[in-house]
Amino acid sequence: xxxxxxxxxxxxxxxxxxxxxxxxxxxxxxxxxxxxxxxxxxxxxxxxxxxxxxxxxxxxxxxxxxxxxxxxxxxxxxxxxxxxxxxxxxxxxxxxxxxxxxxxxxxxxxxxxxxxxxxxxxxxxxxxxxxxxxxxxxxxxxxxxxxxxxxxxxxxxxxxxxxxxxxxxxxxxxxxxxxxxxxxxxxxxxxxxxxxxxxxxxxxxxxxxxxxxxxxxxxxxxxxxxxxxxxxxxxxxxxxxxxxxxxxxxxxxxxxxxxxxxxxxxxxxxxxxxxxxxxxxxxxxxxxxxxxxxxxxxxxxxxxxxxxxxxxxxxxxxxxxxxxxxxxxxxxxxxxxxxxxxxxxxxxxxxxxxxxxxxxxxxxxxxxxxxxxxxxxxxxxxxxxxxxxxxxxxxxxxxxxxxxxxxxxxxxxxxxxxxxxxxxxxxxxxxxxxxxxxxxxxxxxxxxxxxxxxxxxxxxxxxxxxxxxxxxxxxxxxxxxxxxxxxxxxxxxxxxxxxxxxxxxxxxxxxxxxxxxxxxxxxxxxxxxxxxxxxxxxxxxxxxxxxxxxxxxxxxxxxxxxxxxxxxxxxxxxxxxxxxxxxxxxxxxxxxxxxxxxxxxxxxxxxxxxxxxxxxxxxxxxxxxxxxxxxxxxxxxxxxxxxxxxxxxxxxxxxxxxxxxxxxxxxxxxxxxxxxxxxxxxxxxx
Length: 686
Hints:
- With about 675 residues, the chain is mainly alpha-helical.
- The chain folds into 4 domains: about 10-105, no CATH class; about 170-220; about 245-355 and about 555-665, no CATH class; about 365-470 and about 480-535, no CATH class.
- Helices cover about 50% and strands about 5% of the residues.
- The chain contains 28 helices and 4 strands.
- The chain has helices spanning about 10-15, 20-35, 50-55, 75-80, 95-105, 125-130, 155-165, 175-185, 195-200, 210-215, 220-235, 255-265, 270-280, 295, 300-315, 335-345, 355-390, 395-400, 410-420, 430-435, 440-470, 490-500, 520-535, 600-605, 615-625, 650-660, 665-675, 675-680; strands at about 345-350, 545-550, 560, 570.
- The strands form 2 sheets. Strands 1-2 form a two-stranded antiparallel sheet. It has a two-stranded antiparallel ribbon with strand order 3-4.
- Helix 8 packs across helix 9 (about 195-200).
- The longest helix is centred in the middle third of the chain and has 37 residues, at about 355-390.
- The chain is globular and about 100 Å long.
């Protein structure tokens, strides 16, 4: 969150920090993001920047830092770009505040903490606790109004009191044809049939409209209409998000249908909440498992799950505390990571809706098919790699377009495009672009071909060595002297341009045929046929629910300082947000969750009747979709940056009644629909 004109950079604030804090807040993040890509294994100038000792030892040009003397430190000279030769980082100059943070760190002794830095203890002030949305929901008495004839229920008295306060009068009730049309569109999204309109117009009974409302609330179309609004909150999608392929969630409709069914059955909202957070841990879990699609059908990112839970159910922007304490609301960074740890200790799973024999048969067949597909893929890759080696040996011919040589047209076109690319900044091609005569071009082409062959050979050696190291058992081998190797960045880029899966010398399955003959082509055709045969014999996929489950082995979550996973701080045990939790008598911290990953306890805390946010947020969402905007116009932000309620007493009245009525969404609809605010229409929303 940023407020233009008021935002102060983290580096600027850090200059006043203690040395260890300055390092953790500003220096270490810069080293990680700007330096570690090249300077963690002595491959650039023999310089490593991942420990204080390495900085003091330096590289080929000498020590990187001189403690107490930033001006004499090569690191500072390089990032200030005042050194005649060293100018870092390669992507452009750092911001002045970032440079000065490094300089101050060196001047103050270049402190490098051996352990982690604790996040400062966050104290919620009494003033923060007084904020309106954190106050308990208390049902207020309906206000007294001068016009006692207008209005059908207490909702109207809250509305009318506000109107009278401003010297305004309510509108009259809509005529009956308009009224029934509005009711149908509000509750089902569909217009009434002509005979239904005529029947209502002719029904003079006092409860005629109430009967229409009750009939619509009992209609299956009601759940489809109002379930759809919840699916927006749940980020529902039929397709897998953040995927480059067309990858549908084949069973996603089961969560959608469960939501629709929950609205039609008037499932108590607190149960509805718990089912979506921890349905697998509730009694009669079979009724609620499908609700776990709230998480299972979302992007597979834990930060999204924290955000969806806190904003969706409670209107809290806890995600704004990922890198630091929340700038506006009383939400410490520790709260964010306590919740993140809950979801980090869960994994995607499936709950089959078929018998074990059908599931086992499908999985066995799928395993065979996947194995054969893998065999085909590996065969194609091996042939493609061999073919690339052959083409690499003729690099000079393709570069020079040797007319007396037999060249492959497609490979030639790839080379032509590569060599005429507007991005002519590759260091190894500089000589090619500068060559003016034929002799110079032949010389450069020959040298470049030798380089291509050398780079390809080097890549294979690097892969072989790293494969051996990674395969060693630490319990049986001393790995203290073993280190993974890597290629120079420019040489690796060249290899990637030519030999990677997308390289110009590589061909995929569909284009290999014309290069293969005899047994090589026969083997390719055999593998393709076997894949097709196994695919055709696949049994029908079994239906299942996409769910989540706690991991068997739970991991400790730590606070990531400045949101950097590589910079862990204090542990963040699973627990609820501090502002809504009674503190431990000894520590003042919220009670730690102790049941598995903590989802069931989280669900209970979110759906607790004493939680002031959950009923207010849901009541506001319902009001919003009746009137076009909520009593709070920022439905997913009930914090300091959100709007204040236009009718706070009405919001609390509805929230209190909502809980008192057993969290019944249909009763809430009925209360709103039978008010004069609804039948007169929309005055109350403005």
